[in-house]
Write a structure and sequence with these properties.
alpha+beta, 4-stranded antiparallel beta sheet, 3-stranded antiparallel beta sheet, 8 helices, about 15% strand
Length: about 280
């Protein structure tokens, strides 16, 4: 496709008003191309976001030229090189935007205020017997539920039979390991299964089958290793990087806001431009 070929898009009727930045026009086709980067949004929202991004880029390019700033194009590590404009924008932002370093006190305060984020995950070692049945197959699900309940009733008096039942009847590859699923992290299984094992104590077998989209499960929890608070020293660097990144975001947004307020921008409401992060 040539550079001048029209871009096909769901946005069939972009606004007619011409957008310009200090007299430099932002092309409609350029906006539509940029809108592809916002494909998950509604067409009108995608167009607004794309137009704003291009206006901000043009502002930064103009500012770099005004200050005589250029830069050496850098690689992203995957063989893609920056354009001269991208290198100039990066150099401009690095030079003009001051980002304060996160102090040890700020890192400690963030750690204390968000302790729940800095815990090791709880590990649950579990095994199951799966009686598989598709969600849309009502007859198969009824039969699977009845068989699973029969296993639960049997295991209530003969818990030692679990491994044999798993090897003989489970319709999961884990049958070869006597039903063992190993150590499970939160989110590693479907939510309904996770909810089913959450109420079981180590060594306990479910009294009733756990129903999931895959069928019905007879579940045994082998053991559980509760999560623990991670020491501040272990997460300090992660917190510092997060706070530094947040500070850079705010400083860049403030810098863009100053450029926007001083510019002659026509055809686009830039009230939210400061929310767009510079990359």
């Amino acid at each position: 496709m040539s550079a001048t070929a029209p871009v096909r898009t769901l946005i069939s009727k972009p606004p007619r008003q011409r957008i310009s930045v200090n007299g430099v026009a932002i092309g409609g086709q350029d906006i539509l191309r940029e809108a592809r980067n916002h494909a998950n949004e509604k067409p009108a929202t995608a167009w607004q976001a794309a137009a704003t991004a291009l206006v901000v880029k043009e502002l930064l390019v103009q500012e770099a030229r005004r200050l005589g700033v250029s830069g050496d194009p850098a690689s992203d590590g995957e063989g893609r090189m920056e354009t001269d404009e991208e290198a100039a924008i990066r150099t401009l932002v690095e030079r003009e935007v001051a980002v304060p370093e996160a102090t040890a006190e700020e890192c400690r305060r963030y750690y204390e205020n968000h302790r729940s984020r800095f815990r090791s995950a709880t590990l649950t070692e579990a095994a199951h017997i799966l009686l598989a049945a598709a969600p849309e197959d009502g007859e198969a699900r009824q039969a699977a539920a009845a068989m699973a309940q029969g296993f639960c009733d049997l295991l209530a008096t003969e818990p030692g039979a679990f491994a044999d039942l798993a090897r003989q009847h489970s319709q999961c590859p884990s049958a070869g390991q006597s039903g063992s699923l190993g150590q499970l992290l939160p989110g590693s299984t479907v939510p309904e299964f996770e909810s089913g094992i959450a109420g079981l104590e180590p060594g306990e077998i479910s009294r009733n089958p756990v129903e999931t989209r895959f069928g019905f499960h007879v579940v045994r929890v082998e053991r559980r290793i509760e999560g623990r608070d991670l020491p501040f020293e272990l997460v300090h660097d992660r917190i510092a990087a997060y706070l530094q990144d947040s500070a850079a975001h705010r400083a860049q947004a403030q810098y863009i806001a100053r450029l926007v307020s001083a510019a002659d921008i026509k055809g686009l409401d830039m009230a939210g431009a400061f929310e767009h992060r510079v990359h």
